[in-house]
């Protein structure tokens, strides 16, 4: 069994096969941009929550319109939502491309987005429960 990735059907002209591969790689780069953006939102939300949890330990900060926990939850939810939108867009694009590129390699970005989404949900639960 060969370790080479699946190839587009040889019946397609070389220029067409290369164009399809460039398009697939562009979709992967776009998906990774969604992942980076979502990771930033999730990380900032959790970091802000933890920073202010440590800095305000034992101090009465008084009433606020939006507290650090609410702001952190907002950022984390925004990150998870960004991840979901990016994942759905990536899946839609790859399905459309698969019609013309039947031997298309499997996307590794899918696994990364699922893992980061899971981390985002865990961060959300952690902040929500005040851990």
Describe the structure.
This protein is mainly alpha-helical and 131 residues long. The chain contains three helices and no strands. Helix 1 packs parallel to helix 3. The chain is rod-shaped. This is DUF202 domain-containing protein.
**Considering DSSP H and I runs of 4 or more, what fraction of the residues is helical?**
over 70%
User: What fraction of residues sit in β-strands?
Assistant: under 5%
Element order, helices and strands?
A: HHH
Characterize the biggest β-sheet: none
Mean residue pLDDT = 87
Distance from first to last alpha carbon: 49 Å
Subcellular location: Endomembrane system
Membrane topology: Multi-pass membrane protein
Keywords: Membrane, Transmembrane, Transmembrane helix
Protein name: DUF202 domain-containing protein
Key structural traits:
3 helices, 131 residues, membrane, mainly alpha, DUF202 domain-containing protein, transmembrane helix, rod-shaped, DUF202, transmembrane
Outline the fold blueprint:
Blueprint: H1 14-55, H2 68-98, H3 109-128
């Amino acid at each position: 069994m060969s370790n080479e990735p699946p190839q587009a059907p040889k019946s397609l002209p070389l220029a067409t096969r290369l164009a399809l591969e460039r398009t697939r790689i562009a979709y992967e780069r776009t998906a990774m941009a969604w992942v980076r953006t979502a990771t930033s939102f999730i990380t900032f939300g959790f970091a802000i929550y933890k920073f202010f949890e440590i800095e305000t330990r034992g101090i009465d900060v008084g009433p606020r319109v939006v507290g650090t926990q609410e702001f952190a939850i907002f950022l984390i939810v925004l990150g998870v939502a960004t991840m979901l939108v990016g994942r759905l867009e990536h899946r839609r694009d790859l399905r459309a491309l698969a019609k013309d590129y039947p031997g298309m390699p499997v996307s590794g970005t899918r696994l990364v987005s699922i893992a980061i989404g899971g981390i985002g949900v865990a961060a959300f639960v952690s902040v929500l429960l005040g851990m």
